[in-house]
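Minutes, project check-in
Item: structure for the 178-residue chain
Input as provided by the requester:
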Amino acid sequence: MNYLEVILFYLFSLTAIASALMVVTNRRPTYGVLALTITMLALSALFVLLEAYFVAAIQILIYAGAILVLFLFVIMLLGIGDEPNRETVLSHKRSSQSNLSKMMNMFFLLVLLSELMIVILAMQDLPSPQRDLSGTVEAIGEALFGPYLLPFELVSGILLIGIFGVVNLAQLELKKRQ
């Protein structure tokens, strides 16, 4: 393990931990979902460091792409936190916390850009890939349709139940508004 991998590991880990803390501590649900997206991207970068490229791509496509977009859709559909109280908005604007949040946003932007530059520079010096099946599509397919077929189908059923629940909640909210 070289020093670049160690530095990237700590950088992505700290990014994942900090953005996960922002998910939990943020009062606005849309900002929480966006911070969760950063967490998922940092986790996928950790999978790349483990040389599980397919798992990293699935992490980005499924979780950061589909699931979090679904969360944002539900939050916007239900209108959670749409109309904040005027007193809290005024006190929030006056507080120094807004300056702190701007500084944290700039810090995370710089961290993200530096991570991208380090990854791009590191990708140029990579040797040709070796024949290792861990983290590949073939290994995951054999695991999913082999010993883990039943749990895989149960998880898909749970996700389907979640989709039905979201549609039911949206219909109830629409009936209340009419």
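Outcome recorded: The helical segments are 3-25, 29-49, 53-78, 86-94, 97-124, 137-144, 149-177.
No further action items on this chain.
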